[in-house]
Design brief:
Length: 170
């Protein structure tokens, strides 16, 4: 049987992805897509404020985590639905939309690392002493370790937005 392509309905259920574990329907995906667009728009709530208080910093990092998870789920579902049958243009479109949303999210998140690095070291150390920051210790250690390789805020934003152009040939 090797070399013979079978249609999806000929494949046993136990060998198929369970995409309904991610989204129960395309309508649920669309709802999450809209919610994620709204999440992206919240970047202005945090931009320029990360050094103001530990509460704002934690809220921003939580927002970043949630946004990243949403984009990941949207893209995974769309891409896997597309790969089930590449003839269905709906899922090709959803994959493209998820890819563009990912670029928008990357652009919206691009201020975080440069802004954290702009916080004076003593102030950052003070913020990190809050017990609620323990969850993010590894993140901060990595950011500080990579300090010399981090671009400025405008450069990071430009790089994030260039991802869409880089993906265009694909």
């Amino acid at each position: 049987m090797s070399g013979i392509l079978r249609s999806r309905d000929e494949i046993p259920q136990e060998h198929k992805w369970r995409l309904e574990d991610i989204f129960s329907s395309d309508e649920e995906w669309e709802k999450m897509f809209k919610e994620t667009e709204e999440l992206i728009a919240r970047s202005d709530n945090y931009r320029g404020k990360l050094g103001d208080s530990v509460d704002i910093l934690i809220e921003c990092l939580d927002w970043s985590d949630k946004l990243s998870l949403c984009v990941g789920e949207l893209f995974a579902y769309a891409r896997m639905k597309r790969d089930e049958d590449n003839r269905i243009s709906r899922y090709q479109g959803m994959t493209d939309r998820a890819g563009m949303l990912s670029v928008q999210a990357g652009s919206a998140l691009s201020f975080i690392v440069p802004e954290i690095l702009a916080i004076p070291e003593d102030k950052l150390a003070e913020l990190r002493r809050d017990p609620r920051m323990e969850l993010y210790n590894h993140l901060f250690d990595n950011i500080i370790r990579q300090r010399e390789h981090i671009l400025t805020l405008p450069e990071e934003k430009l790089l994030a937005e260039a991802n869409e152009l880089a993906a265009a040939p694909g």
